[in-house]
Amino acid sequence: MYSVLRSATLLAVALSSLSACQRTTDVAPITVEGEWRLTVAGGGITGKMDALPPTQDHRLVLGADHHYAQYYNGQLQESNTYEVRTVKHSYDSAEDKVLFLKSTNSPDGQPYERQEIILSLTENKLELSTGGGCAINSVYERSAASGPFVCGVR
Q1: Bridge partner residues of 43 (DSSP)
Q2: What tens-digit pLDDT sequence spans the chain (154 residues)?
């Protein structure tokens, strides 16, 4: 009898520790919204990826209102609207999630949509690529202040 009571107590403690940090609402899907810091960039002809030096601070802020802003060392470089769409690039390819950034950063100031294929998206990392043969790739890390809450901790 003592071993059954002891086993039941241990089971109760184990189950309560598993549920101690349980969400009471549905978990929201991972989203691109937030502030992202560019940490690695490269690609092109060589394909070489390099970490950015600490003296360079590139930020991409994607708002819930579909507005974005890009900053370099604290200075606003560009802001406009963005959209994430599912795109099939050819009849026999898989569908990609693509980040479309509306831009006027062209020689004549004409608006266009810059496309970045979302290669990977997690709670803390966003990997983008321009696609194509000499793709330019970038890796962003979510800034701690804009990350999701897990058990009351950001």
Answers
A1: 48, 136
A2: 545 444 444 444 444 444 444 444 555 578 999 999 999 999 989 989 999 998 999 999 999 999 999 999 999 999 999 999 999 877 887 889 999 999 988 888 888 999 999 999 999 999 999 988 889 999 999 987 654 434 434 3
The one-letter code for the residue type at 55 is T
- Identity of the amino acid at 7: S
The number of CA neighbours under 13 Å toward the Cβ of 34 is 23
Three-state SS annotation for the chain: CHHHHHHHHHHHHHHHHHHCCCCCCCCCCCCCCEEEEEEEEEECCCCEEEECCCCCCEEEEECCCCEEEEEECCEEEEEEEEEEEEEECCCCCCEEEEEEEEECCCCCCCCEEEEEEEEEECCCEEEEECCCCCCEEEEEEECHHHCCCECCEC
Say if CB 128 and CB 116 are below 8 A apart: yes
